[in-house]
Amino acid sequence: MIIQRACTRASRTSGWLSVVAVDGPLEIRCSTVVEEQRRGLDPTGAWRDGCARDLQRQYGARVSPAVSATFVLQWYAGAVASAMAHLAVASRYLLDMSPERLSLGLSAPGGYPTEVGVQPGPVSLEPRLRDREAMLRRAYDLHVGEFAETYAADVKMSSQHRAGSVEDAWQSAWAAATRAALGWPTTDRWRASCCFIYALPGAHECARCPRLRQER
C-alpha cells in the first residue's frame, strides 16, 4: 500500500514518466541490463537499433549510431533518476530502488521510457528530505554509474560523456521534482554531456549544451 501510494504521488508530478507499482518487471529489467553488461554482453543493442529505425522514419534520413547510442544511455539514466527524485519528494518513506526492483516500459514507436516499474521490497520511514535525497543519490550513482561505465555503445564514447550523462540526469530530475512538488526555484546550469540532438536534420544544440559553452 505504501509503495502504491508513493508511486501514484510521484506520477502526478513527474509529467512525462509514470512511476508504477508492479508485481513483475516491465519490458527492460534493470538488473538484467546491469548483470549482462558486467559479463561483457550488449543487452541494449536491440533498443538502440529500434531507436535508430524510429529516428530514421521520423527524419527521413540515416541517423548516426552515436545519436541512438547517446539517446538510450540518457533515456535510461533519465528514467531512473526521475523515478527516484519524484519518489523522494512524494513520500516520507524510502523505497528499495535497487536494480532488482526496477524496470522500464518503453513507448512504441519511439523507444523512450514512459514507465518505471517498482516491485515490492523493503520500505523505511525517513522523515527528512535531505536524508532521502542522499540515500537515493547513492543508490542512483551505484546503479546508473555502473550502467554508464559498462554501456556497450558500439561507438566511441568518452568516460567524460558517460559520467556527465549520469550527473546531468540526476541534476535535471531533482530540479524538476522539487520544482513540481515543492515549488523550489530552478537555476540554469551548463550540461556536462551532449545529447547529440543537433546531429538530427533541422535540429540544433540545446540551450545549455556544452558545445555552446565551448564556443564562448
Automatic annotation (TrEMBL):
What GO molecular-function term can you cite, just one?
2 iron, 2 sulfur cluster binding
InterPro entries from the UniProt entry: FhuF_C (IPR024726)
Q: Where is the Ferric siderophore reductase C-terminal domain?
A: 191-211
| Pfam families recorded | FhuF_C
Its recorded name reads: Ferric siderophore reductase C-terminal domain-containing protein
